[in-house]
Amino acid sequence: MKLAGLLPLILLAFSSVLTGQNPPQNSTPAQPGEDYSGMYSFLRDGEFVQLTIEDEARVTGFVSRYGDTESDKGAFLDQFFKEGKLDGNKLSFTTAAVHGVWYEFKGTIERGQGKTLADEAYYILKGTLTEYRTDADQKVTSKSREVTFKSFPRDV
User: Which of 6, 145, 149, 154 gives 20 to 30 Å between its CA and that of 22?
Assistant: First the structure.
């Protein structure tokens, strides 16, 4: 009689040991880059990059910045990505032109100094930003610089 009462407990203990050895086969690992989506600093205080990673490699977003030409000085401008791509941690994007200005970024997404997603700089965008300008004569000039953009803290 006592053995019959212990049998279900023994089977339960044995089955829990087995399930501990083999993780469920239907669990899906985190997609690479899924945490990269969010807001990052841009060139000046108050300016930012909104980055959205879709389907592991497709990148959408925009740059919000202050205008600096005579016609838009101080106005807040949104420049949406014309194209964007993520390959592993390699990121590139090009914005649409607004008032003759557009940007191209080529670099990486890396872990920053933030300890959690709720901290600034949990991720950083690090690379080369090229600013293109078209003047009144339709002449295009470019200026490149090395940049590091920090992720904004997120509500977790």
Answer: 6
